[in-house]
Amino acid sequence: MKILILLLGVMLASPAWSVHVTTGLYKSLIDVQDKNGKEVTNPFSPALTVGTNFKFDDGFGFSPQLGFVYHTVKTDDSYGDYKMYSIFLLYDFIWVPQNYQFFALRFGLGTFRKTITGKGGTVTIPDGNSTATAYRPESATSYSSTMNLGTDFTFNMSNDWFKNMGVRFEVFAFRPLSQEFRTYTYNLGFVAYF
Question: Is 4 a member of any domain?
């Protein structure tokens, strides 16, 4: 963690950088089940990211982002409510084609930290012909790695696209090396460059 902070400090001292803020919607492409076992679509969740762009060479750069998602998925059972949120760090590279300054391709890796908080305690659940006691944690945290792919489209076709506004679309593949457990989410938002 100390090395990451040091690396970000050195990058922020670079003269060729800009800050960008994205606000938008985050959605998981897997469905959840209601209390009757039927699949229901995951809702959109609000997301906010802050990041920087560093130019390496003509058209190429590094664009790390720190983000927050407040998941709007709610329990639909009698076991109580919980809150869920994610904090993520993306290590994206960007490429702006020479004749298309309004477009940028993003690709890289990410780390997501998902936290679920609730009341804790125990619940009694059906277990065949009897019941069983299950423990509910007050808080649980999980970490996931992602591969990211996305695009930025800017509204103003100026030569310096870093000081601009636009739309960002990015897809995240969670556990990308696992065929059995791989899942996808996406983020669509409005981005402003400062």
Answer: no
pLDDT tens track for 28-60: 776 665 556 566 666 788 999 998 888 877 788
Q: Is residue 6 a part of any domain in this protein? A: no
Say which residue the tokens 């601009």 belong to: 164
Burial class (CB in 10 A: 0-12, 13-18, 19+), 47: buried
Residue 5 lies in a domain: no
The torsion of the CA quartet 47, 50, 56, 60, rounded to 10 degrees, works out to: 20
Residue ranges of E strands in 60-102: 60-71, 82-95
Q: What is the pTM of this model?
A: 0.78
Closest by Cα among 9, 40, 3, 28 to 187: 28
